[in-house]
Amino acid sequence: MKRRFSLVPLFAVSALFLNGANALLQHEKFQPSGDANVLTGRYIVEFTHQDSTYPFAQSLSRTFDNDVQINEQFTHDLFSGLSFYLNDPAPSSVTASSYDDKLQALFDHDHVTSVYPIRAIRRPHLAAKPVHEDGSLAKAISPHHLTQVDRVHKELKHNGKGIVVGIIDSGVDYYHPALGGGFGKGHKVRYGEDLVGDKYDSNEANPIIRPGPTPLDNCGAESKASGHGTHVSGIVAGKADNFTGVAPEAELGMWRVFGCTGSTSNDIVIKALLKAYDIGSDIISLSLGDNSGWSEGPDAVVASRIAKKGTIVVLASGNEGESGAFTVGTPSTGKGVISVASFDNSNNLVYKFKASGLSDSIAYASDASGKFKTGDIVAGDSKVGGTQDACDPSTIPASVKGNYGLIKRGSCAFSDKAENLSKAGAIGVVVYDNAGGEAFGPSAPDAPIPVLGIGQKDGETLLAALKKGKVTLTFDGKLTPVPLATAKTVSSFSSVGASYELDLRPNIGAPGGDIYSTMPRYLGSWGLMSGTSMATPYLSGAIALYLESAKRSGKSIQPSFVLEEFQHYAFKAPAKNGDHNLDSPLRQGAGLIQVYDTLQQKVHITPGQFSFNDTSSTQHKTQTFTIKNYGSETVSYHISNNVSLAVSPYDIATSGYTYIQPINYTTAAAKLRISKKSIKVAPGKSVKVKVSVIPPNTDPKQHIMYGGYVQLSSSNKKVGLDLSIPYFGVVGRQVDLPIYDQDFPYLSSDSEGKVAYEKNETLVFHQHNKTSAAYIVTRFITPTALVQADVIDAKTKKVIGKAIPDQTYLPRNTLNPGEQAQVIRWDGTYLPKSFSLSSPNGIPVSHGTYKLRLKALHVFGNPKSDKDFDSWTSGPIKVIN
Length: 881
Ligand SMILES: *[C@@H]1O[C@H](CO)[C@@H](O)[C@H](O)[C@H]1NC(C)=O
Ligand SMILES: *[C@@H]1O[C@H](CO)[C@@H](O)[C@H](O)[C@H]1NC(C)=O
Ligand SMILES: *[C@@H]1O[C@H](CO)[C@@H](O)[C@H](O)[C@H]1NC(C)=O
Ligand SMILES: *[C@@H]1O[C@H](CO)[C@@H](O)[C@H](O)[C@H]1NC(C)=O
Ligand SMILES: *[C@@H]1O[C@H](CO)[C@@H](O)[C@H](O)[C@H]1NC(C)=O
Ligand SMILES: *[C@@H]1O[C@H](CO)[C@@H](O)[C@H](O)[C@H]1NC(C)=O
Ligand SMILES: *[C@@H]1O[C@H](CO)[C@@H](O)[C@H](O)[C@H]1NC(C)=O
What we know:
Elements lengths: L1 E2 L9 E5 L20 E10 L5 H12 L3 E8 L4 E7 L6 H16 L3 E10 L6 E3 L13 H4 L1 H8 L7 E6 L19 E6 L33 H10 L1 E2 L2 E2 L6 E6 L7 E2 H13 L4 E4 L11 H11 L3 E5 L21 E7 L2 E9 L6 E3 L10 E5 L24 E5 L5 H10 L4 E5 L18 E4 L1 H13 L2 E13 L24 E6 L1 E4 L7 E4 L2 H22 L5 H10 L16 H4 L6 H6 L2 E4 L3 E2 L10 E8 L5 E9 L2 E6 H4 E11 L4 E4 L3 E4 L4 E9 L10 E10 L8 E8 L15 E3 L6 E2 L6 E4 L7 E5 L5 E10 L5 E12 L10 E6 L2 E2 L12 E2 L3 E10 L11 E5 L3 E4 L1
The site of one 2-acetamido-2-deoxy-beta-D-glucopyranose has 7 residues, from helix 8.
GO biological process, one term: proteolysis
Keywords: Hydrolase, Protease, Secreted, Serine protease, Signal
Family: Belongs to the peptidase S8 family.
């Protein structure tokens, strides 16, 4: 037996699926989602008819008495169903099996069409920077000049009047003066309700749901609430003397789906979607999602149905960009909805302090801003500038007493450094970066004295100054705008496409990095946040401006048409400012929205984006677009291929098919064969153009994701601007990608996978011991749509049944703690091949020796073809009594 992961102490395993005997998941109507966020014992049932809801609820209550809690009931023409929680059955398997039998019988009813597991949806993690000032900085860091929203307000006088934006989020402090100061008719926040209450957290065993009539976020500073929904609301429609949201006259609805802290769940999100749709929202905005790139969950399905009915649904693409390719999350991968990428603002706000003797003040970041007092600064270590500053109490000079200590970043934790300096009597810590970086916020949550971080250059200047004499620091606690080097490029955190099934996601981008907006009054009223959570309401506001204009001009307001309009005229950003290479559509979609052009231009192209898919089929290699002139003058264009950087998702030589975190770029470019190089389109007329791709000649094993834009360069910019269509494709076949990482799966006797059994070692399994089990530890480097586990008799080599029910739509693992691997528990039972209601539970195997075989379907694989699976067979497992 080998010990595994001794070098990776952070290794954490999430329980993919705990109980092999939970046979109801074998039901043909069950739509399992193998997401690690599945909440066991909680289900959503969908019916053919709305009138099935009440009778089903009654049968459920009759069958399970006090052991069932019916959570939500949906009687809607877009979704009829209900969600319920089953209390844990008593540990005796007899009870468990009768539970399953009863559920099976209920699910067998003809009116039940699908059964889904309830999934937790994590609260978006965002770093908020409260801005304690009077709002005078708001103008300085408004992003509206990046998106032409300033011109739309000023020149076109559109401000979202008559448009309703429904937001699904953590509630809103509608008493904030910039958000209308009240709720209901006559107020900016006109619609909505609280679906959950302050204490709700879907991850708790018994979530406390206390709905309320209004969506007020009144959590209070002590609750650790983030104020997310209030920030999002202000981005759409906030208005104060010095602050203007994107659509300041739009009406808002807010459906609160998060408590003060913790997660929500997909049944609550479905309820909120339907309510937002029912009040007649023109746009529904959701700054939430999870990290699976499949699009088959019930919330994604309901969002798609709403979009099909003509209501625009805008969703965050996710903040997992640092984890590499294929990180755009569901439900933004749903069909017909809009997935939004984040672009960085042009300015950031930073704090600065003054050091006596130095002419320029020094920018810093800190969690403890506001706690710094005037004081002298001295070296915080006798060898200051070394690699161990303040890690060893014996090298801290006595002179730090009553002063700030200056030290370099590195070796030990910021809180240890602070603890050591505090013991020596320092009043605060100034840490400078060790890798040439800029001001950073050192994370030292429980430090006894305040800690701040500055850039390396500033640190060295300060060090030189204090070697010459006394230096005093003064703090004014004010934020100052400073230009960002990454302005108008894709934020580093913004998730990277495509969807697992190679649809182009994200579709488009909006400002989301360092965005200033309203915060609940209990958090100081104003603040900065960063995330695709901010880009999403920004786009929703921009669409409100579009709809207001379209309702006057008679332009189409169909969701796909509206998205296409924004896509054609978006700003295509370079990967890096100063570099001429365009960033990939997999990062920026069509680019950063340009709202004035979108509202004013009269030429339209369908579709707005292309996926040339991978190289396994010829079917997707040629695409056709139609360009239509809605204007009154003839337009003409030269059509060309404007290539972008390609995404290199792997480093095959060193790490195989583990995604590189973050992605790497290459300059590999496709050629396009365009059926017409020059076109003229008369008023009211349309022209069709064919585009065929010749992918770059790279090694198919590298799965390079090339991309670019079909560019239509206008011959007369006064009559019509250039348009472009983002495209991408993959060189290689996705079906060839391995699913398991090297050295996985393996067999283990413990649930954390600490002990790995070799193929020639026998794991002994005591059947009478309910706590012993065999575990398959696996790591998916590629997502998989189907996982099956067979129990094989080691002697006869025959498959006797399934070790667990089939798992579908599993996301890929990442290298991040907690997401690195998954465990499948085998309890010594099997599900017979021909599943029957009379034996719905696992049948214990008889004594003997067995092997487990784990099969995972390749992307785009055919589930009927054995060769499309990655297959692994364990060593022997001896089952004794
Ligand atoms: C607006 O900004 C100006 C400075 O630009 C400042 O003097 C004023 O107090 C601000 N008003 C509000 C209400 O914040
Ligand atoms: C000083 O720093 C070290 C890390 O190098 C840490 O282990 C130790 O706990 C710190 N001492 C105190 C008193 O916190
Ligand atoms: C790409 O091709 C696969 C199979 O060849 C197909 O299942 C998938 O839907 C295609 N993706 C798109 C976006 O067309
Ligand atoms: C490609 O797009 C960039 C950014 O819009 C533009 O500057 C450049 O001129 C375009 N190149 C071609 C060949 O159209
Ligand atoms: C990223 O690409 C560059 C240039 O193609 C290459 O030199 C480098 O090794 C790559 N990095 C990784 C991690 O693959
Ligand atoms: C199992 O095989 C490995 C080599 O693959 C060998 O080193 C080890 O001794 C074997 N263990 C047993 C129990 O046979
Ligand atoms: C049952 O199995 C567990 C886990 O393998 C083990 O820790 C425990 O000692 C076993 N109990 C008995 C009674 O064998």
